[in-house]
Design a protein that fits this description.
The longest helix has 14 residues. 49% of the residues are buried. Helix 4 crosses helix 5. The protein is 27% helix and 27% strand. Helix 5 links the parallel strand 11 and strand 12. The radius of gyration is 20 Å and the shape is globular. The chain has 349 residues and is α/β, with parallel strands linked by helices. The strands form 4 sheets. Strands 3, 5, 6, 9, 10, 17 and 18 form a 7-stranded mixed beta sheet that branches.
Length: 349
């Protein structure tokens, strides 16, 4: 089968790899769509960051070279021994978190911070391929009312939903979002659903600001967030970029006693701790998600929420480097790019 395999920074190759049959507790799927995430882009541009290159990941048993892609969905084609609740032909969304099930955090239900935390597609083989084999616990059956095009966006939507849950938004709160990539856009939408009285989102990209406006979100330029929020500042500010400068901008836009939810991935940052303490502001971090997919399925199936509105391009697997990774690095007005490994359009239902 064809797959996009990470061999090193700027070295992702679409090549033939063996199809792996599902072992005990596993399921195989024909991949319909796989999104390109910011994490994938970092691995392509200057990785490895999360990809294991020395010792294999303890849950996947895999190290590089590996198949990228953790935002995927498809149709079940095979089941390993002991798998129940699924059948060949089921349409499924993949929740790509690895979990051991035995560490204290897993036993507490907080599997997104499992001792062996990881993602299929970063720490194990993923969905930028015609076929994928994953632990069956990752799969969520989809009702007929949920198209695969919507399920393809569940993974970033789950990140956004978890962050909004972590924020503790109260009815009438003023919420600001800095960074209008896929997750920032979805955070803005979910914050409104959570009861925020006003949501202001900022970015420096005109294309992303325009998409946010089309989705009904009030916008500001990246440097003018605090001024646009005005008054005492926002009750909750989401940092969805991942840099020291944007984290500081979020703190500046938050009111005294306000909260900043830090989703962006970056290295060491330095902050004015004196101001942080005197303003009694709270920094909340958020990683991955847990128990979010059932709610997303309900949103789409029962409320008709269009999560796929953030998708700006769908491309074939053979063009994943040129029209996916490279286009996103160049910033060519793309927000969310989906890759379609399947050649059979009949599978994309």
């Amino acid at each position: 089968m064809k797959a996009a395999v990470w061999h090193g920074a700027k070295d992702v190759r679409v090549e033939d790899v063996p199809v792996r049959e599902p072992g005990p507790g596993e399921a195989a799927i024909a991949v319909a769509y796989c999104g390109i995430c910011g994490s994938d882009l970092h691995e392509y541009a200057d990785g490895p960051h999360a990809i294991p290159v020395g010792e294999p990941h303890p849950e996947s048993g895999v190290r590089a070279p590996l198949v990228l892609g953790h935002e995927f969905c498809g149709t079940v084609t095979g089941l390993g021994a002991g798998v129940t609740g699924l059948a060949v032909g089921d349409r499924v969304a993949v929740e790509p978190h690895y979990r051991c099930g035995n560490c204290p955090r897993c036993l507490a239900g907080e599997y997104n911070i499992c001792r062996h935390f990881g993602f299929a597609g970063l720490m194990g083989h993923g969905g930028l391929a015609e076929r994928a084999t994953v632990p069956a616990y990752m799969l969520h059956r989809l009702p007929e009312s949920v198209p695969l095009e919507q399920a393809a966006v569940f993974e970033p939507a789950a990140v956004a939903l978890h962050a909004v849950r972590r924020a503790g938004i109260r009815a009438g709160d003023t919420v600001a979002v800095l960074g209008l990539g896929p997750i920032g856009l979805l955070v803005a939408r979910f914050a409104a659903r959570a009861g925020a009285g006003r949501v202001v989102a900022a970015d420096r990209s005109p294309a992303r600001l325009e998409l946010a406006r089309r989705l009904g979100v009030e916008t500001a330029t990246g440097d003018g967030l605090a001024e646009t929020v005005g008054g005492e500042g926002a009750d909750v500010v989401f940092e969805a970029v991942g840099s020291e400068g944007t984290l500081r901008a979020c703190l500046a836009a938050a009111r005294r006693g306000g909260r900043v939810v830090f989703l962006g991935l970056t290295g060491t940052v330095s902050l004015d701790a004196f101001a942080l303490v005197n303003n009694e502001q709270t920094i909340v971090t958020s990683v991955g998600y847990r128990d979010a997919y059932p709610e997303l399925i309900r949103m789409v199936a029962e409320e008709g929420v269009d999560l796929a509105a953030i998708v700006t391009a769908t491309i074939p697997l053979e063009h994943v480097v040129r029209d996916g990774f490279e286009a996103l690095l160049r910033g060519e007005d793309q927000v969310k790019v989906l890759v379609r490994p399947a050649q059979d359009e009949g599978r994309l239902r």
